[in-house]
Amino acid sequence: MGDSVELDRLAAAIEETPEKTRGLLEQMKESWEKEKRGVCLVEYEGAFQMCTRGELYEYLIRVAKAPRKYALTDTLLETLSIVAYKQPVTRLDVERIRGVNSDHAISRLVEYGLVTELGRLDAPGRPLLFGTTEQFLRTFGVKSLEELPQLNERKLEEFRAEAEEEVREMDAGQEGGRE
Q1: What is the per-residue pLDDT across 126-135, written as a single tens digit (0 to 9) for each?
Q2: Which of 61, 102, 136, 147 could form a disulfide with 142 if both were Cys (CB 3.0 to 4.6 A apart)?
Q3: pTM beyond cutoff 0.90
């Protein structure tokens, strides 16, 4: 199907309980791994997908004529990190954290399928809310957002203090240039 399929949908398709279906999927996964098949079964937040085994990916690329690759610049990674940890988040929230316009970065992440629109915030102007996608999980090799590294609060405070100092220095430099 191209995307993962929820356990309940799979269970309904084979007319079994979700528990029995999960057991069958686990048996398939173990069997395929033992036989070193070219595909594997991967779970993403309660949904399952057949994927090419990682070590065979280079051969798949050759056959598929190298699928389109995208480059995640520091700006895109920074924006993606904010969305991943703060979701659902508005574009304005991202811009407040980054301190710069983030229209292009968010648009590019949506284009790459790593970020998606989740709906609208119930506030004046009804701004769009953004969050990460299943493709994000797949790209970074995690099964759920809970597997993302925990933020170190002490380090976070250090970064915040550094950023505030940089802003003060920039403001002081701009005022000095106006005199």
Answers
A1: 999 999 999 9
A2: 147
A3: no
- Token pair, residue 46, equals 């309660």
CA dist 126 and 146 (Å) reads 28
pLDDT in tens, 45-103: 889 999 888 888 778 777 776 556 678 899 999 999 999 999 999 999 999 888 899 99
